[in-house]
Design goal:
Blueprint lengths: L2 H14 L7 H18 L22 E6 L6 H9 L16 E7 L2 E7 L14 H8 L4 E7 L3 H14 L2 E3 L6 E5 L5 E5 L8 H10 L5 E5 L5 H20 L4 H14 L2 E3 L1 E6 L6 H7 L5 E3 L8 H12 L1 E6 L7 E9 L5 H8 L1 H6 E7 L8 E3 L9 E7 L1
Parallel strand pairs: 1-3, 1-4, 4-10, 5-9, 7-8, 10-11, 12-16
Antiparallel strand pairs: 2-3, 6-8, 12-13, 14-15, 14-16
Helix pairs in contact: 1-2, 2-6, 2-7, 6-7, 7-8
Length: 394
């Protein structure tokens, strides 16, 4: 039996199995086996591996990257054309877009790259319809827009989520807060710091046994699922394999490094863009507005683009820092844009040029992050959105 057939068999068994306390251990075991098989499916088998494919390798530019993912003919190309003014071929037939089409918009001073990806189909994670190349590009994005036809959103939404999950993309989730440490002896030491709705000691042991792990310390610091534990174990296993392969020849190491970057779990925010709202009633539109992470639009008529842009900005979690040359007014037209988790003065200097950090004596900051305006700060000071900074060199 082929690997794809085995994966389909396990997925069918999981679909048949009722979810309750009695079957949670069995389902956890099936999920672990499924994760192992999916890893085997894309593990290099020797020889020269294929590249990303012509037209899929797009250089990352700007302050953030957003990818449009969806089934064929849902309006991704029309959305890119009308948002960014970039020509992406539009037609009444499916698979009009065959390569990645980039575009750029400027919003609130930030330069944001948009990628119109070819339509994916069911089975994309297994390589159908160049699905692996499409999903590989989606993994590099800071935000994913799943574009759906408003007349059939739920079916398409579940299928696309399933394809992305199969390639290690976790949508609108945080990395699991699980402590995992393998050891030589002592068995499984299982600790929880909060109540668990799904995992217990037996479930954890059965999942670890599938990976032939019989001695480890496991600490659950949040309410975790079997999928969360499998993600942590798989990530640890890949890191171990990568460190071992680094001692081998450089070509072997590079192959495994590419594998690691390809199937390591990534946690990406996602917005569901429900297109073609000009074909539904006002009552249906009111219901759609209440769905989490959703924005209804009409790409053809350019309806509700303002809400979409504002939501994109919120989900990107970007911070704008304005510069002030000595003796001059601040430049409010071209901010330096940083991700929310990297907003220190040091991060600001590195974004402009690494040599700035060596020359920095201190910085003067105006804004919400300081008590006094201006305030003298060092390189570890954390800035907030729309702060103004002046660098003083040695």
């Amino acid at each position: 039996m082929s690997l794809l057939a085995k994966i389909a068999e396990i997925e069918a068994e999981m679909a048949r199995t009722q979810k309750n306390k009695a079957t949670s251990n069995h389902l956890g075991l099936l999920k672990a086996r499924l994760a192992k098989m999916r890893r085997e499916l894309i593990t290099p088998k020797g020889g020269s591996g294929g590249g990303a494919g012509e037209g899929f390798d797009v250089a990352k530019t700007g302050d953030a990257r957003i990818g449009f993912v969806g089934f064929p003919s849902v309006g991704k190309s029309t959305l890119l054309s009308n948002l960014a003014g970039v020509y992406s071929e539009v037609a009444a037939y499916e698979f009009t877009t065959l390569t990645t089409v980039p575009g750029v918009i400027r919003y609130k001073g930030a330069k944001i790259q948009l990628l119109d990806l070819p339509g994916i189909i069911e089975g994309a994670k297994d390589g159908k319809g160049r699905g692996r190349q499409v999903i590989a590009v989606a993994r590099t994005c800071n935000l994913i827009l799943i574009v759906l036809d408003v007349l059939k959103p739920l079916g398409h939404k579940k299928l696309i989520e399933h394809e992305l999950e199969g390639f290690g993309i976790r949508l609108n989730k945080q990395p699991p807060n699980i402590g995992f440490k393998k050891k030589d002896k002592g068995g499984i030491n299982f600790t929880v710091t909060c109540p668990q709705s799904e995992l217990d000691g037996d479930a954890v042991k059965s999942i670890l046994a599938e990976y032939k792990i019989h001695n480890a310390d496991i600490t659950l610091r949040s309410d975790c699922t079997a999928d969360d534990l499998i993600d942590v174990v798989e990530g640890n296993r890949l890191n171990t394999m990568l460190s071992w392969r680094s001692m081998e020849n450089s070509l072997d190491f590079m192959a495994w490094f590419l594998l690691w970057t390809f199937i390591q779990k990534v946690y990406i925010p996602c917005i569901y863009v429900l297109n073609k709202i000009d074909q539904i009633s006002i009552e249906e539109l009111d219901i759609i507005y209440k769905v989490p992470h959703c924005v209804p639009i009409s790409a053809h008529s350019r309806w509700n683009f303002d809400d979409l842009l504002e939501k994109m900005w919120d989900y990107l979690h970007l911070v704008r820092i304005y510069t002030k040359p000595k003796g001059q007014l601040p430049d409010y037209t071209s901010p330096v844009v940083l991700p929310t988790d990297h907003t220190t003065v040091e991060d600001f200097c590195l974004k402009i040029h690494k040599s700035l950090l060596k020359e920095l004596k201190y910085a003067l900051v105006w804004g919400a992050s300081v008590k006094h305006n201006p305030q003298k700060v060092g390189k570890d000071h954390v800035m907030e959105d729309e702060d103004v900074i002046q660098l003083v060199k040695k």
